[in-house]
Amino acid sequence: MPRTKLDIPNLPASVTAERDGEIGFLRLSRPEKRNALNDTLVLGIEAYFNGLPSDIRAVVLSGDGDHFSAGLDLSELTVRGTVESVHHSRNWHRVFDQFEFGKVPVIAVLHGAVVGGGLELASACHVRVAEKSTYYALPEGVRGIYVGGGGSVRIPRLIGASRMMDMMLTGRTYGAEEGLAMGLSHYLVDNGTGLDKGIELAKRVAANTPMTNYAVMHALPRIADIDRPGGYMMEALMAAISSGSEEAQARLKDFLEKRAPKALHKGS
Predict the structure, then answer these.
(1) Domain membership flag for residue 39
(2) Catalytic residue check, 120
(3) Which of 34, 217, 255, 261 has the most beta carbons within 10 angstroms of its beta carbon?
(4) CB 117, CB 77: distance < 8 Å
(5) Within this chain, do residues 153 and 47 fall inside the same structural domain, yes or no?
(6) Is 0.70 topped by the overall pTM?
């Protein structure tokens, strides 16, 4: 079945929304600007997730053209007062938090530049697939600015604060294979095949119970941030809630009666 357009209010031209069954598609559509992020595009991302139909179970995020996103659109960087700048950054935090801790898992398909704000956007996604053309950078330091889309919080959790310091202080870039080894992506695929891989993974994710996906998205990162006793308690509560649903009970019964596939290693 071909993808169909998603009718979501307040979407700018720089965002394309489609669906195919339970899978939603969100595409950054500013190829002439290397999908650089401005406020219009970021608010379009917010509108997309606000208007996502309830029967969508996973979202694939990608970028038009040769790059995922080259970061903040510096041509639109205006001189702001300190308070205005704080509010501007907090708006980006709100939007990226909205889908990191949102309704459904998001699989990012990366290629070309994943730079600055583009890397901040990708780091808010739950699974990242990188094509071999992908490269990563945080050039804010050498441009006299600082990350403002949550990168200070998310990226060190992926690669460590020391490595992020090096990227920002020196302008160092990393290629796709290095990014996989560091934890910037989960999968590495040939150029032109990232979207197919992203769809494959989205279908796997969509097949999970909604409660399990919710627990993984919302409880797991918070458990990682709190003390061990609190983490154990939250884990116990989520385990009890997720296993108590009718769908979970049916799946467990299928497994016990040998109707469900076993977990076997088949490669990524």
Answers:
(1) yes
(2) yes
(3) 34
(4) no
(5) yes
(6) yes
